[in-house]
Amino acid sequence: MKLSLFKKLAKKYSNLPLSKDIQDIDDFNKYQDALLNDKKCTDWVLKQQIKSAGLNPNKYCCLDMGYHLIEAKKTKRKTKINYDTIIITTKSKEFGIPIHDGGTSFIKINYCPWCGHKLK
């Protein structure tokens, strides 16, 4: 699917909840297929989600890393532990996997779990 068509369909189908009759049409099926199977379309969606969270998608080694750091950003604004956070970044630019034991402990990682890129 062309990315321009996907963007138009994304506008149409991004407002949830969708009515049952909208989900049954051919365009919706094409949209879902592109969302799941077309890398250009999937990457565009990830970039939009990262940007809407206030993060810069170009700052990370891959879009998956940026996407998974969205939960970490949400956690910084809360006082409670966010158990949905699976990766964090520290002020000293380290990356890690949080240990959900009630504290701020984490296991430092040197490589991206998604793309294998060496982290700085």
Q: What this model shows, in words?
A:
The protein has a domain of 65 residues. Strand 1 and strand 2 form a beta hairpin. The model has no long low-confidence stretch (mean pLDDT 89). Helices cover 46% and strands 8% of the residues. It starts with a helix and ends in an 11-residue tail after the last strand. The protein is mainly alpha-helical and 120 residues long.
How is this fold's topology laid out?
Blueprint: H1 3-13, H2 20-23, H3 26-37, H4 39-52, H5 63-76, E1 88-89, E2 95-98, E3 106-109
Antiparallel strand pairs: 1-2, 2-3
Helix pairs in contact: 1-3, 3-4, 4-5
Q: What would the keywords be for this entry?
A:
120 residues, mainly alpha, 3-stranded antiparallel β-sheet, 5 helices, 3 strands, elongated
- Radius of gyration computed on alpha carbons: 17 Å
| SSE-based structural type | mainly alpha
**Largest sheet, described in full?**
3 strands, antiparallel
The overall pLDDT average reads 89
Silhouette: elongated
**Cα distance spanning the termini:** 36 Å
Sequence stretches where pLDDT stays below 50 over 5 or more residues: none
Order of strands, main sheet, comes to 1-2-3
Q: Helical content, roughly?
A: 40-55%
Number of alpha- plus pi-helical segments: 5
